[in-house]
Design brief:
Layout lengths: L3 H7 L5 E8 L2 E12 L3 E6 L2 E6 L3 E6 L13
Antiparallel strand pairs: 1-2, 1-5, 2-3, 3-4
Length: about 80
Amino acid sequence: MQTPASLLASFPLGTRVVVRRRVDTGFTDSLGDLVAIDGTTCTVRTRRGDDVVRLADVTAARPVPPAPPRRAPRRR
């Protein structure tokens, strides 16, 4: 069976992914484009900026569909 980190490494750069990782208080997710990966970390570009994730902390990863287009602002 493939580990979540090796699955993540198999995705091409630019793939939109969700990465779940272990943190001190439990788990957290990073949702965005996979922009870099090396032997110890991956970088996910989220709406709030680049999130560098240690591969040793990854518990799940999968590709996700593109984000829906933003809606136009409401008129008043």
